[in-house]
Every structure is written in structure tokens, then in C-alpha cells.
Amino acid sequence: MRANVVLFWILFVFFALSAAVYAYWTWIDELQPGVEPAGTVALTLTAVLAAFIAFYLGRVHSAQGAELPEDRVDANIDDGDPELGFFSPWSWWPIMLATAAALGFLSLAIGWWMFPIAFVLFLVSIVGWVYEYYRGHFAR
Q1: 69 pLDDT more than 90
Q2: Which residues fall within 8 angstroms of residue 93, CB to CB, at 6 or more apart?
């Protein structure tokens, strides 16, 4: 976790310097003098976000009281948490959910008549994904 803290502090310094250089560069522009607000604010807020994450991770690291296995040089792979979750490698329902989401967002661009189709596909997909272990070959 210490490496993540250092990385985000480096990102904070980079984005803060980038915001300062960008503000100065747009300020000295001969065609349109003055600081361009959108890019300056975006880079400044990106630096603030990196500082927030670095501060939070630093506080968590100091409050935790021990080193993570990822921070130790002599750690083995087995020292980390082995539980990563349960995933169905044969399940097609996440692909159907992604299709429903794509159709839903596509309905914003093409027309609202597609939204009910996407919503019905979403309902069928989410019910199928939730209940895939309650029926068929893999029922418990």
C-alpha cells in the first residue's frame, strides 16, 4: 500500500504542476489572453483528487498497523488473500446484461422506442443471472 501512496502523491505533484503550466501557457497566449478556465479547473481538480486518494491510503496504511503482503519483498503469492469471489466462467448472463445496457444507452441516441426493449432484456437477464444456480444442470 505504501507504493500506492507514493504513486498518488507523485500524481498529485504532476497534475498540480501541469495545471500551473497550463494556466500560465493560456495566460500568455497572444490570440486570446487570459486563463482558460475549463482545462485549468479540470487539471486542478484532478490534482486534488489524487491528493485525496493519497491522503486516504496513507491514513489507512498507518492505521492498519501491519504491512500488506504486497509491500514485503520476501512475501509469497500464497500470503495474500486467496478469496477473490465466485465467478461463473460458463455464464452468458453478463453478456446479455451488457447488451441490455448498450441498447439502453443507444436508445438515448436513436430513439426512445428502443428503451422498452432494452428494459425487458435487462429484466430477463438480471433474473436469469440471479437464478442461474437454482435451475437446470447446476441447481443446488
Answers
A1: no
A2: 125, 126, 128, 129, 132
